[in-house]
Amino acid sequence: MIQPSQHLSAAQFAPLLHTFRRQSPLVHCMTNDVVQNFTANVLLALNASPAMVIDADEAAQFSGFADALLINVGTLTRERQRAMQAAVSAAREAGTPWTLDPVAVGALTLRSDFCQQLLSQQPAVIRGNASEILALAQQASGGRGVDTLHPAVAALDAARQLAKEWNTRVIVTGEVDYATDGQRTFAIRGGSPMLTRVVGTGCALSAVVAGFSALPGDGLLNIAAACQVMATAGEKAAGQATGPGSFATAFLDALWTLEGDHETH
Amino acid sequence: MIQPSQHLSAAQFAPLLHTFRRQSPLVHCMTNDVVQNFTANVLLALNASPAMVIDADEAAQFSGFADALLINVGTLTRERQRAMQAAVSAAREAGTPWTLDPVAVGALTLRSDFCQQLLSQQPAVIRGNASEILALAQQASGGRGVDTLHPAVAALDAARQLAKEWNTRVIVTGEVDYATDGQRTFAIRGGSPMLTRVVGTGCALSAVVAGFSALPGDGLLNIAAACQVMATAGEKAAGQATGPGSFATAFLDALWTLEGDHETH
Amino acid sequence: MIQPSQHLSAAQFAPLLHTFRRQSPLVHCMTNDVVQNFTANVLLALNASPAMVIDADEAAQFSGFADALLINVGTLTRERQRAMQAAVSAAREAGTPWTLDPVAVGALTLRSDFCQQLLSQQPAVIRGNASEILALAQQASGGRGVDTLHPAVAALDAARQLAKEWNTRVIVTGEVDYATDGQRTFAIRGGSPMLTRVVGTGCALSAVVAGFSALPGDGLLNIAAACQVMATAGEKAAGQATGPGSFATAFLDALWTLEGDHETH
After folding, report:
1. Average of per-residue pLDDT across C126-140
2. Of the candidates B38, B39, B189, which has an alpha carbon nearest to the alpha carbon of residue B99?
3. C251 to chain B: which residues are within 8 Å by CB?
4. What is the band of C138 on the pLDDT scale with cuts at 50, 70, 90?
5. For binding substrate, which residues are annotated in this chain's numbering (chains A, B, C) (predicted)?
6. Minimum CA–CA partner of C44 in chain B
7. Alpha-carbon distance B180 to nearest alpha carbon in chain C (angstroms)
8. pLDDT per residue as tens digits for the range C197-230
9. Is C108–A61 a contact, with Cβ atoms under 8 angstroms apart?
10. Contact criterion met (CB below 8 Å) for A49 and A27
11. List of residues 6+ apart from C124 with CB closer than 8 A
12. B58/A248 touch (CB, cutoff 8 Å), yes or no
């Protein structure tokens, strides 16, 4: 029986952020061209270690050292697909958890086929918006790209089904984020509409989720904490911003200074 | 007979910005590696929807959904040239307007040949600096890269000739920007020298121009309004900045808050 | 006999910064995907002219116009390796000085082999962290990527050896930076730990070093001044920042406003 969504308490969230910063996971990001810089800066602001290695041979080598791997198909090409496949295979062999961000899946053929293939390769986490999760579960075609046409809750059943079918965890993000393993579900509130006016906040969340997936303990709780970190920083930044430029700056500062223990909901 | 340049009145500029934000055009940006992030953030700050899709097959698919396409040859490779060509062909078939930013044309062979080929493929708009427009009109070789060695007005005749010859619209940018269809010409003032100290402001303008080219109405007026939006935001940001870092932040905030109705000249 | 490290005096540093800004060197940056935007903005903030040209034929053409070339292997692929090799060959033929940033050399095979090959092609400068310089001198395998596991001083002997063996100049960066030609050594202090929390500060330093290597005069002093410019701006920015977001903004502003004559140590 499906349990109702739980919220993260401050007592759950703060120590995980502390552990993340102390462990400083090395996150191998194979992500899209548009967001590489911002993704790296978000990880650095949380004291993690980002690394972008993209040649197929080097990416496979690197997945052996890294604590986590992120695959984001935003600017997929056939060459990158080969490199990503090599990295995923090496990560699985090394026991490195890997996270899939299926950007704009459903709308475009190359990435849709690739993401469907990747489902059977044991991703630790899948993170997408509602349109992407629906498309991945093949319940709907995707939106018109990176936009989502559905609220996150509309894809919650699809997320649970996907999680159960592939024995993974799924995060659907939107005004409220949901993290589910098919049985338990966390609902994460906070954030800000301004997060949709800075490119790469969702992609960077996927990288942070990848990093949190390398922590010990309750895997679902860990990735829910990753969402809460980003939502809380977003909310804090929105209070200081006069537009998306100052918001992006304040967001990185908020990640850096976040205590976690008195900012959750 | 060529008419003298006209200025944009506030009454012309404000409602177009309003329409742009409300329509939120989906702009497919095939642009250079250096400026993708900033370009996306500029479009988002104006409430448009940027998307960067670069595989040849996916790019052709995507040009069918998008409201506008941008081709910027700043970091051209042979593979990207094939993908850009596929996207332009698909855009023409779908009736999607496409804009050409011929970065550093004239100075380098691959891009110069490609840009000359593209001229016959009905771009809705061409946006370049004086050196680039002169090179494209084959009246001079280009500058030493992205710099321009000429004021915009030096290329105004070349711009008019290019617009007439290829039945398109041409924007030459510099201290003053000019937008012409070969008959009518708008002169756009404002801006700030600080715009030349942040990478990608010209490239981002081309993306905004691409988005405005998808609006209904007077096509030349629409793209002149795009220039005025960027110039006005630049002027506003310069008043708040202590260097190029704070300028870039203030520029994105200014795009977000710009009213348009009391800031034109 | 090896001389002890010297410090840069204000009298040495200020006029070199002035010359750099006046000459505005055109720096051809073949660098990694993650840092292209920040690298360009750092150069622009110092009044230099960045250009990123990546196709093999165009890169070779461009190395003829440029004042300096930077090769950074952070996101190396086989295709980029070919383009970088073409650019280095053309730079050598044209007498354009070129700088090597051997990101993560030692840890990954493709880049390690390529960097070893490049050593014999007369780089004007090599700039790396301690792990990278040790790996390049084949005294140790590299760190786990872009991180360094050693303080800069631990690689100072390796740097001197490398400089003498290949008749070049080597910069090892860390809490203190060292610039050596194998005989003389400058030690550069200042900077901020916050520089490690913004992606690309080291890569951007390499681009600035490449630009300073094009100045006339004492080649070792020139590149030491480049390090001092970045360290001084970093120190200034840290005093104004509340996190890595505001630090990055303040850093670009500090580069823009730096006088050099009263800020050295």
Report:
1. 91
2. B39
3. 245
4. confident
5. 52, 200
6. B197
7. 28
8. 999 999 999 999 999 999 999 999 999 999 999 9
9. yes
10. yes
11. C68, C97, C98, C99, C168, C169, C210, C213, C219
12. no
pLDDT at C26 over 70: yes
Q: How far is CA B180 from CA B1, B96, B144, B156, B171, in A?
A: 13, 21, 25, 8, 6
Which chain A residues are within 8 Å of C246, Cβ to Cβ?
249-250, 252-253
The torsion angle over the Cα atoms of residues B184, B186, B187 and B193, rounded to 10 degrees, is -130
Please give the order of strands across the beta sheet that includes C26-30: C6-7, C185-188, C177-180, C169-173, C125-129, C98-101, C68-72, C26-30, C49-51
Binding positions of B for substrate: 52, 200
Nearest to A249 among C109, C197, C249 (CB): C249
3-state DSSP assignment of residue C129 = strand
Place of tokens 């002149």: B224
| φ, ψ dihedrals at A114, nearest 5° | -65, -45
- Could you give the C-alpha distances from C132 to C70, C111, C151, C185, in angstroms and in order? 17, 11, 11, 18
Pair type for strands C49-51 and C26-30: parallel
Provide mean pLDDT across the span B64-72. 96
Per-position DSSP letters for B131-168, written without gaps between them: HHHHHHTTSS---SSS--SS-GGGGHHHHHHHHHHTT-
* Coil, strand or helix at A172: strand
Q: Identify the closest residue of chain A to B37 by CA–CA distance.
A: A34
Nearest to B249 among C26, C249, C255 (CB): C249
With contact defined as beta carbons under 8 Å apart, do B101 and B36 qualify? Answer: no
Name the 3-class secondary structure at B2: coil
Give pTM, 2 decimals. Answer: 0.95
Rounded Cα distance, B213 and B215, in Å: 6
Contact partners of A by the rule of 3+ C-beta pairs under 8 A?
B, C
| Length of chain A counted residue by residue | 265
CB contact under 8 A, C37 and A33: no
- Is A127 annotated in a binding site? The answer is yes
Cβ-defined contact of C52 to B37 (cutoff 8 Å): no
Alpha carbon separation from C133 to B119, B221, C192, C201 (Å, rounded): 49, 57, 21, 17
Identify the CA nearest to C135 among candidates C118, C110, C159: C159
Spell out which residues of chain C touch residue A251, defining contact as CB-CB under 8 Å: 245
Phi, psi of A25 (to 5 degrees): -60, 140
pLDDT digits (tens, 9 = 90+) for B87-145: 999 999 999 999 999 999 998 999 999 999 999 999 999 999 999 999 999 865 445 55
Report which residue type is found at C44. Answer: L
Host H or E run for residue A163: helix A156-165
Q: Is the separation of the CB atoms in C68 and C25 below 8 Å?
A: yes
Chain A CB contacts of C34 below 8 Å: 36-37, 40, 52
Question: What per-residue string of b and e applies to B185-221 under the rule 16 or more CB within 10 Å gives b?
Answer: bbbbbbbbebbbbbbbbbbbbbbbbbbbbbbeeebbb
Reply yes or no on whether the pLDDT at B80 is more than 50: yes
Contact B53 A245 (CB under 8 A): no
Report CA-CA distances (Å) from B142 to B76, B101, B109, C192. 16, 14, 11, 41
Instruction: Answer whether B57 touches A (CB < 8 Å).
Output: yes
CB contact under 8 A, C107 and A51: no
Query: Nearest CB to A109: which of B61, B79, B257?
Result: B61
Q: Do A76 and B58 touch (CB under 8 A)?
A: yes
User: Which C positions 5-44 lie with beta carbon below 8 A of chain B?
Assistant: 26, 33, 36-37, 40-41, 44
Cα gap A233→C152, rounded to integer Å: 34
B30-41 pLDDT, tens per residue? Answer: 999 999 999 999
Question: Residue A202, annotated ligand binder?
Answer: no
Two tokens, residue B162: 């290019």
Q: Where are the alpha helices (DSSP H) in chain C?
A: 10-23, 36-45, 56-65, 78-94, 109-119, 130-136, 156-166, 201-212, 219-238, 244-257
Task: Count CB atoms within 10 A of the CB of residue B146.
Answer: 26
